[in-house]
Design a protein that fits this description.
The protein is an alpha/beta fold. It has 10 helices and 10 strands. The relative contact order is 0.20. InterPro entries: GlcNAc_PI_deacetylase-related, LmbE-like_dom_sf.
Length: about 260
């Protein structure tokens, strides 16, 4: 059911946000495109890696259809390099690309299998993805890639632990992993939990700024001012539900 058909109640929208669980050591972040995590939750990632936790990024595409003035064959490798540099700023050393086609990612068993394989490979306790609902806050239409990857990630967290779903993965040496304890959705209009953004916010700005080619194609605003305004504004807007603390918000699905 879409968020338009089942919007959050006033009570849900005003409820205090709880701190994210801390009893985990490894997280896997699965999103559609380069820059999705930088717009979504990299300030939280910076804080987690500072604390010694391991975070790995998995991207369904290389973002090759994301810049109108660049052909996909040129754009894809460029955005891959920008993503790797961006991840390094917040302490993420491993970035994988699943090589689905940007703009036409399809929800289905193929996508679920690829994400389940990544979960089995990295064995996280926490899986992170981006808003999987039809809209952003009921006002802006979400992209099909975000919806497909978000929904597939929620499903793949369970698929990864079931040896009878995608048995071919075990044949490839990827044994079932039933250790995912939570899936956290960044950018949700129904957040339940949050992370203090302050320790990682400056690095989050620098991380988003690594996507300079994309940002310069997206806006005429000076890139650093644009990145800072977007990220600090989002963190401040969450503060009223998190004890006045600027925050990165998540909708948390326990498993």
């Amino acid at each position: 059911m879409s968020d338009q058909e089942n919007p959050p109640t006033d009570r849900q929208a005003a409820a205090p946000l709880r701190p994210m669980p801390e009893e985990w050591r490894r997280a896997l972040a699965v999103v559609a495109h380069p820059d999705d995590l930088e717009y979504g939750c990299s300030a939280a990632v910076a804080g987690w890696t500072d604390a010694g936790r391991e975070v790995v990024y998995v991207l369904a595409t290389r973002g090759e259809a994301g810049i109108d003035g660049l052909a996909p064959a040129v754009c894809g490798p460029l955005r891959e390099r920008e993503q790797q540099a961006s991840a390094a700023v917040v302490g993420v050393g491993e970035v994988e690309f699943l090589d689905h086609r940007d703009g036409v990612v399809e929800y289905g068993t193929g996508l679920r299998r690829d994400i389940a394989a990544a979960i089995r490979r990295h064995r996280p306790e926490l899986v992170i993805t981006l808003n999987h609902r039809d809209t952003w806050g009921g006002t802006a239409w979400n992209t099909p890639d975000h919806v497909a990857v978000g929904r597939a990630t929620l499903d793949a967290a369970a698929d990864a632990g079931n040896r009878w779903i995608f048995p071919e993965l075990a044949e490839r040496g990827l044994e079932p992993w039933d250790g995912v304890r939570w899936v956290a959705v960044a950018g949700s209009s129904r957040p339940t939990h949050a992370v203090d953004a302050r320790p990682g916010l400056e690095r989050a700005v620098r991380s988003l700024l690594e996507h300079r080619t994309y940002i310069e194609a997206l806006t005429d605003e000076e890139p650093e001012a644009y990145c800072r305004s977007f990220l600090t504004g989002g963190a401040r807007s969450a503060a009223e539900r998190f004890g006045g603390v600027p925050a990165v918000t998540f909708e948390l699905f326990p498993r």
